[in-house]
Design goal:
mainly beta; Immunoglobulin-like; 2 domains; twelve-stranded mixed beta sheet
Length: about 375
C-alpha cells in the first residue's frame, strides 16, 4: 500500500513562503527546531519591500541578548518549494527564487549552508535533510506506478512508494557572546501569485517563539512601496492590538472584510506603512496579499490596479459595446495610480470612486517611470 507522508496543498501558482530565523539543533545529518534557554529576542525590525518585478526584498534586523556564557547555535529557516512551476529541482538546497542572501552578525559577514528538508506547510519544518539517493524529484521520476506525480513540489521514494513535500533550508552557525548581539540579513524573493491574486507574501513569524523569552520584546513590521504604488491587505488576527500607520510617502488605511475574515487594507504610493508592538507573541503566520481579492464582488474595471506584469485588468468581463470606454479607462490607469487629477470630468469622477486613488494636484504627466506593462495598457488597452 502506498504511504502518503504529506498531502499537497493546491491554491495558486508558485506558492511558497519564508520565515523568521529559528534555533536549530544539528545532529549528524539532521536539523531539528529546538527551544533556546539562554538567548532572548529583544528586538526585531522586519522590512518587506514590494516591487513591480514580482519580487519582494526582505530586510530583517535582530537584537538578541545572551544571558549565559558565550555559546554557538545554529539558526535558519525554510522556504517552501515552488508549486506548479517548471523550475528545476535543486539537490543542493538552493531555492530557485531566493537571491542575494546575506547574513551579518555583530558586524561580520557569515557563511550559510543549504539543505533539502521535509516540509509540513502549515506546521513548522522539522529540518530533516532528505537522502536524495532515495528521494527523487518530479523531473527525475515523472511517473509512479503508471501515474504522473501530483506536482514538482513533491519528492518520491520508489522503495516505499511514498510522497513527501519538501522545502529548501537556509541555515548558519551563529556565535553569541555574553550580552547583546546583532544579526542582520537580507534577500530577494519572488512573490507568490495565482488566480485572483496579483501577489502574495507569506511570512512565518512563529519561529520567534523558540527564543528564551518566547516573544519578541520590541517588534516592528514595515511594508514599503518604493517608487511604485501597492494596494494590499494584511490579516487582522495577528495585528489587531495596535494600528498600522503610514510614516512615509502617501497612503491610506482602512478595515475590510473578506468572507468571515477581517483585514487591514492599505494603499501606498512611494511610501511605508508600519506596525509596532511591545511583548509581541505571534500566534500564527502572516500573509500580505494584493487587494484584488476584495474587488470581485461588484467588479468595476480599475477597482484594483498594480504596475507589475502579473496584473490582470479583468477586460474579459467587459462587453464588446463597452470597448471604447474600457480602452479609455485602461489607458489612463497608469496616470491615475500616480495621482493625476484629470481635466476630463468623466474620468475624474470614474477614478475618484476607487479607494486606492490618491489625487496629487502637483503631479504633472511624466512617463519616465512607466513600466512595460503600463505601456502595453496605454498602447493596446489590455
Amino acid at each position: 500500500m502506498r504511504k502518503l507522508l504529506i498531502v499537497a496543498f493546491l491554491f495558486a501558482v508558485v506558492p511558497f513562503g519564508w520565515a523568521n530565523d529559528g534555533v536549530l539543533f544539528v545532529n549528524g545529518n539532521h536539523l531539528v527546531p529546538v527551544q533556546e534557554t539562554d538567548i532572548e529576542l529583544n528586538r526585531e525590525v522586519l522590512t518587506i519591500s514590494l516591487g513591480d518585478d514580482g519580487y519582494a526584498t526582505v530586510d530583517v534586523q535582530y537584537v538578541l541578548n545572551n544571558r549565559g556564557n558565550d555559546k554557538t547555535v545554529t539558526m535558519g529557516f525554510e522556504a517552501l518549494a515552488p508549486y506548479n512551476d517548471e523550475v528545476a529541482f535543486s539537490p543542493q538546497g538552493i531555492h530557485p527564487y531566493i537571491h542575494d542572501f546575506t547574513v551579518v552578525m555583530n558586524g561580520q559577514k557569515l557563511a550559510y549552508m543549504n539543505a533539502v528538508v521535509v516540509s509540513k506547510y502549515d506546521d513548522e519544518c522539522d529540518f530533516q535533510p532528505l537522502d536524495l539517493r532515495r528521494w527523487k524529484s518530479y523531473d527525475e521520476v515523472r511517473m509512479r506506478n503508471g501515474e504522473e506525480l501530483p506536482n514538482n513540489s513533491m519528492l518520491y521514494d520508489a522503495s516505499m512508494d511514498s510522497l513527501v513535500n519538501f522545502a529548501y533550508a537556509y541555515y548558519f552557525v551563529a556565535r553569541f557572546h555574553h550580552g547583546k548581539n546583532t544579526i542582520h540579513h537580507t534577500y530577494r524573493y519572488r512573490m507568490s501569485y495565482g488566480v485572483g491574486r496579483t501577489f502574495e507574501v507569506p511570512y512565518s513569524l512563529m519561529p520567534a517563539m523558540r527564543w528564551a523569552n518566547r516573544q519578541i520584546d520590541d517588534f516592528t513590521l514595515r511594508i514599503k512601496a518604493t517608487n511604485t504604488v501597492k494596494h494590499f491587505i494584511v490579516e487582522d488576527s495577528l495585528f489587531s492590538r495596535e494600528p498600522f500607520v503610514v510614516n512615509e510617502g502617501v497612503g491610506k488605511i482602512r478595515k475590510s472584510k473578506l468572507y468571515d475574515e477581517f483585514f487591514t487594507e492599505i494603499a501606498l504610493r512611494n511610501g511605508t506603512v508600519e506596525w509596532h508592538a511591545l511583548n509581541f507573541k505571534p500566534t500564527g503566520n502572516m500573509t500580505i496579499g494584493s487587494a484584488d481579492q476584495l474587488c470581485y464582488k461588484g467588479f468595476k474595471l480599475g477597482s484594483f490596479y498594480d504596475r507589475s506584469d502579473n496584473y490582470q485588468p479583468g477586460s474579459y468581463m467587459i462587453s464588446a459595446d463597452k470597448l471604447r470606454e474600457y480602452r479609455r479607462i485602461l489607458t489612463n490607469l497608469p496616470y491615475a495610480s500616480r495621482g493625476y487629477v484629470f481635466k476630463d470630468k468623466k474620468l475624474q469622477k470614474y477614478f475618484s470612486q476607487f479607494w486606492w486613488y490618491m489625487p496629487d494636484a502637483q503631479w504633472k504627466p511624466d512617463t519616465s517611470d512607466f513600466t512595460p506593462r503600463e505601456w502595453k495598457l496605454i498602447n493596446e488597452g489590455e
